[in-house]
Amino acid sequence: MTTTFTPDKFQQRRQGIGDRKFASDDNAIMKQINDIHVPDGRDFDVKPLLHIVENILIRTTTTTALTPALPGIPQGSAQVQLDGLEEKTLHDASGDMIDLLAYTINKISCELSCKCTSGGDAHATAVAVFHMVSNYSWDAKLVLALAAFATTYGEFWLVAHLYPTNSLAKSVAILKQLPDMLERPDFLKPKFEALINLIRVMVDVAKCIVQFKDLPPHYITPEIPPMAEATAHIPTAVYWTVRGIVACASQITSLIGMGHHEYTSSTMDAWELSGFAHKVSNIIGHLQSQLNLCWQHINDRKQIEAYMLLVRLFETPHADNIKILRALIFVKDDHPPLYDGFSRTKVSLDVLRRRNVLLFISELQVPNDELFILEQMYLESRENPTRPESQYEVVWIPVVDRFTPRTAEINRQFETQKEIMPWYSVDQLSSIDQVVIKYIKETWGFNKKPLLVVLDPQGRVVNNNAIHMMWIWGSTAFPFSSMREEELWKEETWTMELLADSIDPRIPIWITEKRFICLFGGEDMVWIRKFCFLAKSVANKAGINLEMLYVGKSNPREKVRKIHAIIAQDKLSHALPDPHLVWFFWIRLESMWYSKVQHGKTVEDDHIMQQIVTMLSFDGSDQGWVVFGKGPTEMAKAKGEDIVKCLSDFDVWRNNAVNKGFLNALSDYLRDIHTPHHCNRLILPGAAANPERVVCAECGRPMEKFVMYRCCTD
After folding, report:
1. Rounded distance, CA 149 to CA 252, Å?
2. C or N terminus of the chain, fewer CB within 10 Å?
3. Strand pairing partners for 399?
């Protein structure tokens, strides 16, 4: 005699898990469930069992060689995921653990089959399951319940798969009245789709809860807010997932003996399952967000720990610099972490052992000006590598923050930049950890503008940023220490040699030949023409050899480039052959200013500082300016309007020029026509070294401080 479900019996089953499941008072339910929770301290790693469960449930919800193409099962799902699960299952499965848990799993499975077959109340069935696992932790409760359901679900699909070809399976299917369902699967498609969706969400909940248990206690404790929030929410997640298991088990049980007249209920069953899936999805969404916050907290703690280790490492003496370099540049599996830009080969950190190392730190896109000038200085130092001032190596450290995705375009930019540098670079962007970037920013003060951090042969930092020294003195500043910087300043006076001899190879020759040199700048082409005409005319009248060189503005934009072209075409004066050199002239002045500020010098107590500020004020004005010099010491300077008047009045001070010398007479007349009225501007790029108080180089009064934002597009 064949047993079938009658409509009344089916309706009774539906009422047990009907709409009232979502109308229940969650607080009352959870109080009941928490009262049942009496863990006895037994604890085991549920991951091996979860891998087995996942292997069963994922395989039976994916069309493979194991399961035929039945309704709701996605076609052509990735075999790789299944193979990975099987490998993990075989690797993790523990026979002893399964032996201990098999009885409990079978007991829960029987409870689900019995209660679901008899149409019992879903909540009561869930409570019965919780009683069976009352002594286990919350993650174990859920995994055991899933394992019990997976047993029934897996058996069902084994029969479904083997039914067409295996006589034993066919006989079992007949007793369960499955042939009709298997031969007309489209009627049950909505139910299977909803069932499979719910199963996958429940597995995700279990995996998420297990991940909470595996969080490293060294970095996160129960009272941390996201952990506390998740811990309070996990019992609710486990309860509603078990309710979902009961609902799924009821659907599988209802397929036994299902007749044609019961197919019409498939859509309503699908609604029920979808409702559970929606609720459980909301639960896992909340848990996952808390898990993400937990990992963020853990990563923050790890970053702090790694950062402090790096700080202590730099405070500790070392025999050589390798330990420091390994901390800064990650070495993976003995893969050579450096790229030699000269030989185009990958090399190990040993090439830097006991060498003075200059870390060239910049953003991924290195400014062309900095790169061009630094490259010239580096190549010059390599021409005679035995010189004491050539005993250093440069390593490029690109700074890419964690919010910048490592796209193909980013990697292409990195590879392109790496190839054009003649020194060493890190071979991969991943070689620079975010902790190192944090240290570079917070300890060495990196903020977009390139740095040149100097490490001595023992890995000690001798200068947090020697780039100013490099711009002022080049490799002569070796070993780039603060002490060496002080020594170099003691040797300097304000001369044309200090101001400009490194920007053009003709200047040292002019200085040696004691020619009169005139540097001038500005963007007013009318003034430039007038000045050049007057200067040449006065030079002829005075009988002096005058060489004039246009040095533009600190931001050599298109307007300055056009002026360069006009000057060259009309032969008004000499001009720097490359825009990079215009930039270099002004960055050297800024570097002198920063260097002096770092050593506590001011306009009031340092003559060179006073001259530097005057030059930078010239650049900040809208008019032209000039600096005259002769030989190593004689200097005179003036604003555009003053020098034009002075040269126009040459006949007034011509005799004085004969008696006292051209530059002395020029300076005297400039003082005579000078008026106290002035409006000087000193514009400096934003930097941490900028002092709060700066005085005017012309009158000595404190200058007002403004913040300027500039965008120049020409």
Report:
1. 10
2. N
3. 363
Q: Which of 516, 515, 598, 587 is nearest to 551 (CA)?
A: 587
The angle that helices 225-254 and 189-213 make with each other, rounded to 10 degrees, is 150
3-class DSSP state for residue 461? strand
How does pLDDT run across 656-676, given as a tens digit for each residue? Answer: 999 999 999 999 999 888 766
Sign for the pseudo-dihedral over CA of 658, 659, 663, 666:
negative
Q: What token pair was written down for 319?
A: 């025999």
One-letter amino acid of 642: D
- Specify which of 26-35, 267-276, 326-335, 530-539 reaches the highest per-range mean pLDDT: 530-539
Residue 260 has pLDDT above 80, yes or no: no
For residue 202 the two structure tokens come to: 């429940």
- Residue 248 CA from chain centroid, whole number: 44
Q: Which contiguous run of DSSP H or E holds residue 370?
A: helix 368-382
Centre a 10 Å sphere on the Cβ of residue 368 and count the other Cβ atoms it contains: 11
Q: Report DSSP letters for 660-688, one per residue.
A: H-HHHHHHHHHHHH--S-----------T
DSSP letters spanning 174-241: HHTT-HHHHHSGGGGHHHHHHHHHHHHHHHHHHHHHHHHHTS-TTT--TTSHHHHHHHHHHHHHHHHH
pTM of the entire structure? 0.75
Q: CA-CA distances (angstroms) from residue 325 to 308, 329, 454, 644?
A: 16, 6, 12, 57
Q: Long-range contacts: 299-304, Cβ < 8 Å, 24+?
A: 301/219, 301/220, 302/219, 303/434, 303/435, 303/438
- Single-letter amino acid, residue 402: R
Beta strands in 415-538 (DSSP E): 424-426, 451-455, 461-463, 516-521
Residue 596 pairs in a beta bridge with none
Is residue 391 over pLDDT 80?
yes
The helix or strand, by DSSP H or E, that contains position 356, with its residue range, turns out to be strand 356-363
Residue 471, judged by CB atoms within 10 A of its CB (0-12, 13-18, 19+), counts as buried
CB under 8 Å to 609, separation ≥6 — which residues? 593, 596, 601, 602, 603
Give the residues across from 345 on adjacent strands. Answer: 340
Pair 216, 119: CB distance under 8 Å: no
For residue 145, is pLDDT > 90? yes
Tokens of 507: 């200047």
Closest of 472, 513, 498, 488 to residue 627, by C-alpha:
498
Q: Which amino acid is at 407?
A: T
Question: Measuring CA to CA, which residue among 212, 406, 208 is closest to residue 298?
Answer: 212
Q: Is the CB of residue 273 less than 8 Å from the CB of residue 251?
A: yes
The 3-state DSSP class for residue 357 equals strand
Are the C-beta atoms of 276 and 198 separated by less than 8 Å?
A: yes
* Token output for 522: 């500005």
Residue from 174, 203, 170 nearest 62 by CA: 203
Polymer length of the chain: 714
pLDDT in tens, 279-333: 888 999 999 999 999 999 999 999 999 999 999 999 999 999 999 999 999 998 7
| Residue labelled with tokens 């149409």 | 119
Q: Quote the CA–CA distance of 61 and 248 in Å, as a whole number.
A: 13
CA–CA dist 275, 272 (Å, integer): 5
Higher pLDDT, residue 384 or 678: 384
Annotate 376-425 with DSSP letters as a single string: HHHHHHHTSTTSGGG-EEEEEEEE--TTS---HHHHHHHHHHHHT-SSEE
pLDDT of residue 82: 46
Q: How large a percentage of the chain has pLDDT more than 90? A: 51
Long-range pairs of 365-370 with CB within 8 A, sequence gap ≥ 24 = 365/413, 365/417, 366/396, 366/417, 366/450, 367/450, 368/580, 369/580, 369/583, 369/584, 369/587, 370/450
- Bridge-based pairing of strands 634-639 and 392-399 is unpaired
